[in-house]
């Protein structure tokens, strides 16, 4: 049997040399973004890359150790401009920050409990469930809840107008969005239930070793920052 030659690593996956330490990873050059003012499609820039993750922050009510942990995740994302494989590492660090926050917050809850022998659960999935059951996080407190409900209301209005257009035999119709208001059911989405199902799977994939590689991790940063801020929000 003919032996296969050993596989060689791609240059961009090797340890950087001193003269290439600050060069952007070539894989970041494959992506572009639309200019908000002109609509022009143009290459991404390092300043925009940094601004993307800088948008996510933890409240000053979050313990300092957790803030530092999350800032480390943000720095990993920032340096992914130079080492593309830092993107999944940044996402893993962000998810670990969430588990850290859940453990700390639930430990405080247990310490205040009058029940003898109460212990908080282990594992990201069980921690999220416990935080939900104790009312420390809730779907109605996400900053995106109202905007997503409005999107659903607009989609319903569009569908209704399309049906009306078809009924009247028209080829075009104008949708008046000014009168569109979300209904209670538009807010009825179990975000936390979705996160309980998905976030632990993502974290476990990384924790046990994976070749997963993509740069679409900012949504995880958004989720982690929102959940963490809810955990340590002042009592209402």
UniProtKB/TrEMBL annotation:
Q: Which domain of life is it from?
A: Bacteria
Q: What is this protein called?
A: Uncharacterized protein
Q: Which organism is it from?
A: Paraburkholderia ginsengiterrae
């Amino acid at each position: 049997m003919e032996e296969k030659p050993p596989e060689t690593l791609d240059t961009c996956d090797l340890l950087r040399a001193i003269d290439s330490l600050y060069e952007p990873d070539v894989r970041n050059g494959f992506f572009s973004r639309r200019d908000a003012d002109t609509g022009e499609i143009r290459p991404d820039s390092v300043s925009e890359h940094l601004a993307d993750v800088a948008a996510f922050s933890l409240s000053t009510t979050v313990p300092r150790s957790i803030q530092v942990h999350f800032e480390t995740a943000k720095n990993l994302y920032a340096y992914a401009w130079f080492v593309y494989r830092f993107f999944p590492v940044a996402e893993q660090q962000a998810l670990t920050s969430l588990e850290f926050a859940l453990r700390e917050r639930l430990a405080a809850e247990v310490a205040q409990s009058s029940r003898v022998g109460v212990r908080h659960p282990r594992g990201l999935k069980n921690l999220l469930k416990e935080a939900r059951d104790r009312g420390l996080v809730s779907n109605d407190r996400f900053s995106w809840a109202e905007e997503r409900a409005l999107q659903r209301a607009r989609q319903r209005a569009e569908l209704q107008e399309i049906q009306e257009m078809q009924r009247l035999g028209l080829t075009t119709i104008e949708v008046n969005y000014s009168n569109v208001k979300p209904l209670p059911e538009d807010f009825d989405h179990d975000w936390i239930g979705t996160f309980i199902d998905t976030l632990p799977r993502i974290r476990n994939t990384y924790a046990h070793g994976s070749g997963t590689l993509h740069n679409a991790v900012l949504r995880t940063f958004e989720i982690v920052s929102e959940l963490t801020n809810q955990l340590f929000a002042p009592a209402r």
